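Hi there,

I know you've been waiting on this one. I reran it after we fixed the sequence typo, so this is the corrected version. Both the input and the resulting structure follow.
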Amino acid sequence: MAARSRRRRHNRGRGHGGGLKTAGIVILAVLLSAGMGAAAWWHSRQQRAAAIDQTTLCPTATGPVGMTAILLDLTDALSPAQKSQLLGYLEQEIDDAPQGTQFTLGVVSADPDQWGATPPLCKPQDVSTASALTQNPGLIAKRYRDRFLQPLQDNIARMTAASGAKQSPIMESLQALIADTPGFVTYDGPRRVLLVSDLLQHSDALSFYRGNDWQSFVKSPAYQRLGATLGDAEIRIFQVPRPLEGVDDPAVLEDFWARYFDVQGAHLPVLKRLGDL
């Protein structure tokens, strides 16, 4: 009888242990299911965050994270040294820009039909941030090269060809670029303007070749046309040195453009000269 009692206690112990094992399996299954659900949710969220417009390459969830407008004023040819410097600086600007930054380009021209902006392109993800586990680095590298970098470089190469124009309406071309860049005027995020120019404005509104300066511009009817479209924008000028015909004091150029961008609401320009000596 004592033996039967021990067997009953032993069987009850085995039954209790089996129940614990079953409960453990159930809990593990629940945890695995929850983990898989969380992983699926996270993956879906990451995919939505990484989604881009197939035309502009801009993030569909947020739009551009910043905007950079590049204006090229190259009515005279650059020397090989100047062109090499310029391309290097522009390449650095593109490399340093955050993913999702929108780029547009415009050109200074005596022909108003040439004013405006190229179709906007946002900087997509590059291969340096691609995950080999969840992404295809080869496709990411190809998209960055073929659909973003190469079109941008092609436009820069085309626009840096000298046009030999008789006028250089820098202010007018700049405002046309800004107005034609989607969302630039009202965008409340980081905005940058890169101006590649000799800064020798020459148009009906103002011409340094006629001896004009900021003071004469303020007194002219053209001053009333001045807008304020660059609030809080960063300005970087890559100045191309040219013979200053009609300009007695080179400081007049820097003074004019500093005042011009101040009225526009922008930060004080950062100037870098593209010298070749």
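Quick highlight: The CA atoms of residues 201 and 208 lie 6 Å apart.

Best,
R. S.
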